[in-house]
Amino acid sequence: MYLYIHGFNSSPASIKARQLHARLDQLGRGAEFACPALDHRPVQAIAQLEPLVRQQPPERTVLVGSSLGGFYATWLAERHGCRAVLVNPAITPDEGLEAWLGPQKNLYTGEPYELTRDHLAQMAALRVDRITRPERYFLMHTTGDELLDWRIAVAKFEGARQRIVEGSDHGFAEFEHYLDEVLAFGDGAPD
């Protein structure tokens, strides 16, 4: 199963989620895709994701997390032993989102909510300081990401498979060109 974990203020309607699902559909594997609409509260988002991760043995579950979803995917991969593809992942969202405290609106659903210090504290509690098995991870990052510094991610995921794409932006418009590489990693034999 490929479990796509969307980012901050995103949804299952995100472009990258739809691209991955479409590629799996083309291969006759659309039923292997899941992407829940996550709650804006980190504790609730994890509570939504964990039952989905537990549905399959860890070697048959591949997390694909974008931005804040990459942060969640890292925590889940460490906890459950599955593989994770991290697309421009947030490393310290509890710090990076501090500037965004206050009223928010989901970009896809229009749902309003308030980003509070409690959200940040919940994120801080999910931080993974050091990954235990780099071979479980595939880091994909753009050097032109205007929100997240790719060099920080490269250092954090040292030893993991990495695809660093020159230029682009946080949205990673070229993601579709790398879908077969994502699937090759996800379908590979567990280490």
Task: Kindly describe this structure.
This protein is an alpha/beta fold. The chain has a single domain, classed as 3-Layer(aba) Sandwich (Rossmann fold). The chain has 7 helices and 8 strands, in the order E-H-E-H-E-H-E-H-E-E-H-E-H-E-H. The chain has a 6-stranded parallel sheet with strand order 2-1-3-4-7-8, sandwiched between helices. Strands 5-6 form a two-stranded antiparallel sheet. A hairpin with a 6-residue loop joins strand 5 and strand 6. The mean pLDDT is 95.
- Helix-residue proportion: 25-40%
* Oligomeric form: single chain
Given the helix and strand composition, which structural class is it? Answer: alpha/beta
* Number of separate strands: 8
Distance between the termini: 17 Å
Number of discrete domains: 1
Order of H and E elements: EHEHEHEHEEHEHEH
Q: Kindly report the name of the CATH homologous superfamily.
A: Alpha/Beta hydrolase fold, catalytic domain
What's the overall average pLDDT, rounded? Answer: 95
CATH fold description: Rossmann fold
The CATH C-level class name = Alpha Beta
The main sheet orders its strands as 2-1-3-4-7-8
Strand content of the residues, in percent? 15-25%
> How many helical elements?
7
Unreliable runs, pLDDT <50, ≥5 residues? none
Could you give a short account of the major beta sheet? 6 strands, parallel
Second rung of CATH, namely the architecture: 3-Layer(aba) Sandwich
| Broad shape | globular
Radius of gyration: 15 Å
